[in-house]
Write a structure and sequence with these properties.
- This protein is an alpha+beta fold.
- It has one domain: Holliday junction resolvase RusA (60s Ribosomal Protein L30, Chain: A).
- Strand 2 and strand 3 form a beta hairpin.
């Protein structure tokens, strides 16, 4: 039986951003400004919820929400549940891990249990539950 010691809930109501490939010049490596702003916003919310990063094994439940396109027919809107188009879920998870690294957990290698999904909703954002499973 699994006992959950600590649970942290984070809800970030901004359209999820996938982790892009870093841009490289002859002098520096950097990420796009909109991605960095998204990541820093999530990090700021996480800092308000966490006193210190969790140590040991960590479990996460991550849900990504996207609005249904207005151009879709009523029937297609009624049938919409899973967001099966881009961005890829693994790139979305990478952006969450990057934002929470050093804030919610010491390192993202601690995440041993993960439940994630991307779906349509009336709003855009990401809902994250982080819990200690050690």
């Amino acid at each position: 039986m699994e006992i959950i010691n600590k649970m942290i809930n984070i809800c970030y109501l901004v359209k999820p951003k996938p982790a892009p490939r870093p841009r490289v010049t002859s002098r520096v490596t950097y990420n796009a400004k909109d991605y960095t702003a998204w990541k820093n916003g999530l990090k700021l919310i996480a800092k308000t919820k966490m006193k210190k990063p969790l140590e040991g094994a960590v479990g996460m439940k991550v849900e990504f929400f996207y609005k249904i396109p207005k151009s879709w027919s009523k029937q297609k809107k009624a049938d919409a549940k899973w967001h099966i188009s881009r961005p890829d879920k693994d790139n979305l998870l990478k952006s969450v891990f990057d934002a929470l690294n050093g804030v919610a957990f010491v390192d993202d290698s601690q995440v041993c249990q993960l439940d994630s999904r991307k779906q349509y909703a009336e709003f855009e954002g990401v809902k994250i539950e982080i819990y200690d499973i050690s």
